[in-house]
Amino acid sequence: MQQTKGLTHLINSTRYSIKGLKAALSETAFRQELILTAILVPLALWLGKNKIECILLICSVLLVLVVELLNTGIEAVVNRIGTEYHELSGRAKDLGSAAVFVALVILFVTWFGILVF
Fold it and tell me: Where is substrate bound in this sequence (predicted)?
């Protein structure tokens, strides 16, 4: 397969990214986090006292989306391999879920730290 370069590569990459985002919309957790994002980003712009606070508040929200996308990718690969239980498959899914949890803790700590202290 021939590797694309330049503008063609950028167009193809963008197309694949949009395809991935559309696929993520079929996931309940991603939709819930997208709703949370739609609420928290405008709130961050309103509550942030300066540009740095706004950026930190917004980036902590976007981090949750990024980690959820990666977790969904892990789950898709594990499910593709097979439906029977395997300890490593379970561990991979648990680790992906733990990563989302840590991202949510980062979001909470960031928002709490900026808004309360």
Answer: 29-33, 68, 97
Q: What is the mean predicted confidence (pLDDT) over 90-95?
A: 97
Q: Give me the number of domains the chain comprises.
A: 1
27 marked as part of a ligand binding site = yes
9 is known to lie in a ligand binding site: no
87 labelled catalytic: no
pTM (2 d.p.): 0.92
pLDDT over 70 (residue 1): no
Cα R_g (the chain), whole angstroms: 17
Does residue 96 fall inside a structural domain? yes
3 occurs within a structural domain: no
- Is residue 112 a known part of a binding site? no
Residue range(s) defining the domain that contains residue 79? 28-116
Name the band, by pLDDT with cuts 50, 70 and 90, for residue 4: confident
Supply the mean pLDDT for the chain: 96
Catalytic residue among 24, 64, 68, 69: 68
CATH classification of the domain holding 87: 1.10.287.3610
